């Protein structure tokens, strides 16, 4: 055994990896800039700024903080870069905005990683964060009732010209509160408080008609609850409660049924509720395994092509093989979180990492399987790839939980080597 | 910490489900891509509802039937050819669902799962398809139909190549009539009657009844029956005859097309045996051309039928409904010693740059009856050709055949006229079927059409 240990695979050369990624991003950036009738300088500029930010991040944290683990960031850079060029090729003006959001996400990530390093502070912040999250949702409900809906859901609030999606920030709070609460000696008080917290959130999301996000929270809750109790009975109880709740929602919410009627019947509803799905399937077939090339597809003209249906654009223009590789990134993130959780310093990190990775993976699944008609369409985005500022920031912040669970991340703090 | 590891199982399961989901997505794509890519909403393939870059469809002699010129589908120069071959070639909008242009749409456009519609987007050249159809023979058949609704089908019974398939009413795809949906003259214009019409078989079904008798009775050829102008089964209505034939053996009854005799035969055989023969002859099973274009399988049900119904079924006047190609296949098998090769209309597919594209060719032969049965029934049909049809069919054609006149109502002019058979000629191994709606009688209307088409084949 000892002999085997010596022959461990060499750690990935971070600089080489980022160099390869840089080449990929420059090439795809140019492809995207050339996709339209004119050469779009905004896209290539945005891409170059992103590349600079990536190198700055790597060099600073490699040299000054002596971190050696950058796999997660590389994946996020890759996903964000693809999102940037796809969105840019559809709407060049959106590229720059998306870049700003990626940078904001990176800042949020850096802050979160530092914050999570201080476990005592995290424990103290637990209650304020929970209260803040609930307040945020309450404001959302009240404001949206006053202002009406956007695209059939009430999940936006507008502050000073910026549209915010409170539920995205609540995701961070949810994992934070969940892992911090459940890490504590498992008193029943803690568990019940957290269940009440979860129920309030999911209930609020159902109220604001964001069914997809409600589902994401529910699955994350299941992971959190099981990570904490290890009790399958809890899970069964939670599942049956959800089934009943779901039945009630379906019964009284005609709009949900209306949305689901196209499920597995998209060709019958191809011009109504099956519009997006049918166009994505056509795009997938037209793109084949290798794709028709950036800018040559038609899925890009479908409503929501920069967020909900971006997977269809990628399949059609970049090819099915690339699209599959892209979404497998989320499996890689999940496996990293699971491997990390074995060796991480405390249950707080393990729970946070597994729940966060589960959330990202499940959200990706809802999107890609919904849009290809393998699951009902719920209208959620692909983490890191789809357009949207709130979502981008929240994805990066959630990634911080996985990063924090990696023993190598905080090596510089204690300096202790794992025995 | 071990506990925590174990508890991550939910995420492990989620990962596995995710990968399974991707596998399923891939499976769906691989199995449905040809279908999805040809959906009318696909702008890679259609502009204003018309195919953009499909390849050329040729007839067997490499005459262009339809091609793409400057982004438009252009059909053959001759209006007659356009009308005669429309149902096998297909229309621009793929309303004719059994047309090659519709069934082979994805391959015509040069679509492939690997490259998607890339070739179409960049070069606008698709794949070319060569049919087994001979446009000159189709022209003759179309002219011979003289405006009747109906169909003519001719197949090489040794190879299974369909050389003629004409269905009327038809229209000129280059000049689509404005009243196509409202005018009765265009009723059912989008169906290929050879493949998908539901016709009462009339007396051509006596071939099936006779085969059943030959299969089940050793003395079928020597037995005699009595025709007194009508036959009254124990229960139900009488089966009437067009003549008063007296004593008849099977060969005479077959050539006189005597209803009472065949009703007696059917009733004596019983529903089980009749059903077994019908099934083995392919009645009830769709026929597929190249394994891709499906016909109507036929409707045949004598389960628990009363005697009179069984009798009427035996003479081809029951509830039985057949597509003409089913009778064509039976004739083809009789001609070919009991077995028939699979039928095809597509000879080959080549890429726009001339490379062969192998198509999965299902070219097996199917035995419909024993060889000696085929020989016996062939003799009966040859006898018909010699004694019954010599006035309407050229003697040199060596035709072995059976007429049919399916009654729809009391008016003779509404009858469906049938003529089905083959040429007993090694040089011209062709089986044929002619079906004419409102055709009065098979002898009067259908047989002369077959005569013209077969002569054209021999004189070519």
Features:
heterodimer, A: 419 residues, mainly alpha, 17 helices, 72% helix, globular, disordered N terminus, disordered C terminus, B: 460 residues, alpha+beta, 6-stranded mixed beta sheet, 16 helices, 21 strands, 37% helix
Question: Could you describe the 3D structure shown?
Answer:
The complex is a heterodimer of chains A (419) and B (460). By secondary structure, chain A is mainly alpha-helical. In chain A, helix 13 (310-318) packs across helix 14. Helices cover 72% and strands 1% of the residues of chain A. Residues 1-6 and 414-419 of chain A have low confidence and may be disordered. The longest helix of chain A has 29 residues, at 119-147. In chain A, a hairpin with a 2-residue loop joins strand 1 (157-159) and strand 2 (162-164). Chain A starts with a helix and ends in a 5-residue tail after the last helix. Chain A has helices at 2-6, 14-33, 41-63, 71-90, 92-117, 119-147, 166-183, 188-207, 211-229, 232-252, 254-260, 275-287, 310-318, 320-343, 347-371, 389-405, 411-414; strands at 157-159, 162-164. Chain B is α+β, with helices and mostly antiparallel strands and 460 residues long. Chain B contains 16 helices and 21 strands. In chain B, the strands form 7 sheets. A 6-stranded mixed β-sheet of chain B has the order 5-4-3-6-16-17. In chain B, strands 8-7-21-20-19 form a 5-stranded antiparallel β-sheet, sandwiched between helices. A two-stranded antiparallel ribbon of chain B has the order 1-2. The longest helix of chain B has 29 residues, at 9-37. The mean pLDDT of chain B is 91. Chains A and B meet through helix 9, helix 12, helix 14 and helix 15 of A and helix 1 and helix 2 of B.
């Amino acid at each position: 055994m000892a002999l085997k240990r010596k022959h461990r695979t060499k750690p990935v050369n971070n600089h080489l990896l980022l160099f390869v990624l840089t080449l990929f991003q420059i090439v795809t950036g140019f492809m995207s800039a050339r996709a339209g009738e004119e050469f779009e300088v905004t896209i290539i500029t945005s891409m170059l700024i992103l590349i600079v930010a990536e190198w700055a991040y790597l060099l600073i944290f490699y040299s000054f903080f002596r971190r050696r683990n950058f796999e997660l960031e590389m994946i996020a850079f890759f996903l964000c870069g693809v999102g940037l060029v796809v969105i840019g090729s559809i709407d060049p003006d959106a590229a720059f905005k998306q870049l700003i959001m990626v940078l904001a996400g990176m800042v949020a990530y850096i802050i979160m990683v530092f914050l999570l390093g201080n476990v005592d502070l995290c424990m103290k912040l637990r209650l304020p964060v929970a209260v803040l999250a609930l307040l945020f949702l309450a404001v959302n409900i009240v404001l949206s009732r006053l202002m009406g809906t956007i695209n059939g859901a009430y999940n936006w609030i507008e502050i000073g010209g910026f549209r915010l999606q409170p539920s995205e920030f609540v995701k961070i709070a949810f994992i934070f509160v969940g892992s911090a609460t459940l890490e504590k000696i498992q008193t029943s008080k803690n568990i019940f408080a957290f269940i009440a917290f979860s129920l309030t959130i999911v209930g609020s999301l159902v109220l604001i008609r964001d069914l997809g996000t409600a589902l994401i929270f529910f699955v994350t809750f299941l992971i959190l609850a099981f990570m904490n109790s290890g009790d399958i009975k809890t899970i069964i109880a939670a599942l049956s409660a959800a089934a009943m709740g779901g039945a009630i929602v379906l019964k009284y919410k005609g709009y949900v049924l209306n949305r689901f009627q196209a499920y597995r019947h998209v060709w019958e509803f191809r011009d109504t509720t099956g519009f997006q799905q049918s166009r994505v399937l056509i795009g997938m077939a037209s793109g084949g395994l290798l794709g028709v090339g950036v800018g040559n597809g038609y899925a890009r003209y479908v409503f929501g092509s920069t967020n909900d249906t971006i997977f269809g654009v990628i399949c059609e223009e970049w090819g099915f093989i690339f699209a599959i590789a892209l979404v497998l990134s989320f499996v890689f993130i999940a496996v990293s979180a699971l491997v990390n959780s074995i060796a991480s310093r405390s249950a707080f990190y393990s729970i946070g990492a597994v729940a966060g990775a589960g959330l990202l993976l499940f959200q990706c699944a809802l999107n890609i399987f919904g849009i290809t008609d393998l699951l009902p369409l719920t209208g959620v985005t692909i983490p890191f790839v789809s357009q949207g500022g709130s979502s981008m920031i929240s994805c990066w912040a959630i990634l911080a939980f996985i990063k924090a669970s990696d023993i190598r991340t905080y090596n510089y703090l204690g300096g202790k080597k794992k025995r | 910490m071990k506990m925590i590891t174990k508890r991550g199982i939910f995420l492990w399961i989620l990962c596995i489900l995710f990968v399974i989901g991707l596998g399923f997505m891939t499976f769906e794509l691989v199995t449905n891509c040809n279908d999805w890519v040809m959906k009318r909403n696909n702008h890679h393939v259609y502009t204003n509802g018309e195919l953009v870059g499909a390849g050329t469809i040729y007839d067997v002699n490499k005459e262009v039937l339809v091609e793409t010129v400057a982004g438009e589908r252009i059909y053959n120069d001759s209006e007659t050819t356009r009308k005669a071959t429309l149902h096998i070639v297909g229309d621009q909008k793929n309303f004719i669902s059994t047309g090659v242009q519709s069934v082979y749409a994805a391959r015509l456009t040069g679509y492939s799962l690997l490259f998607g519609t890339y070739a179409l987007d960049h070069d606008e050249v698709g794949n070319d398809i060569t049919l087994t159809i001979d446009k000159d023979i189709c022209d003759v058949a179309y002219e011979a139909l003289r405006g009747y609704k109906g169909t003519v089908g001719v197949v090489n019974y040794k190879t299974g190549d369909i050389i003629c398939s004409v269905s009327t009413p038809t229209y000129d795809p280059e000049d689509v009539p404005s009243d196509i949906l409202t005018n009765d003259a265009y009723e059912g214009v989008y169906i290929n009657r050879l493949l998908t019409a539901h016709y009462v078989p009339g007396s051509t079904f006596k071939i099936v009844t006779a085969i059943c008798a030959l299969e089940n009775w050793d003395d079928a050829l020597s037995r005699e029956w009595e025709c007194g102008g009508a036959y009254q089964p124990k229960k139900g209505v009488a089966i009437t005859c067009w003549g008063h034939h007296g004593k008849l053996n099977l060969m005479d009854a077959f050539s006189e097309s005597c209803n009472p005799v065949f009703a007696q035969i059917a009733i004596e055989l019983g529903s089980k045996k009749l059903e077994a023969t019908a099934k083995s002859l392919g009645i009830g099973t769709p026929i597929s051309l190249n394994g891709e274009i499906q016909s109507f399988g036929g409707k045949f049900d004598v389960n628990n039928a009363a005697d009179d119904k069984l009798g009427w079924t035996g003479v081809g006047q029951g509830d039985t409904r057949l597509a003409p190609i089913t009778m064509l296949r039976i004739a083809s098998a009789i001609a070919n010693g009991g077995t028939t090769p699979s039928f095809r209309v597509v000879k080959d597919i080549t890429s726009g740059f001339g490379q062969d594209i192998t198509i999965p060719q299902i070219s097996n032969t199917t035995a419909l009856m024993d060889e000696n049965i085929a020989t016996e029934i062939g003799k009966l049909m040859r006898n018909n050709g010699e004694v019954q049809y010599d006035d309407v069919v050229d003697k040199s054609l060596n035709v072995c055949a059976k007429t049919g006149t399916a009654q729809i109502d009391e008016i003779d002019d509404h009858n469906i006229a049938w003529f089905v058979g083959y040429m007993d000629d090694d040089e011209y191994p062709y089986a044929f079927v002619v079906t004419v709606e409102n055709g009065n009688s098979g002898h009067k209307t259908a047989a002369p059409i077959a005569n013209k088409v077969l002569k054209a084949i021999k004189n070519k």
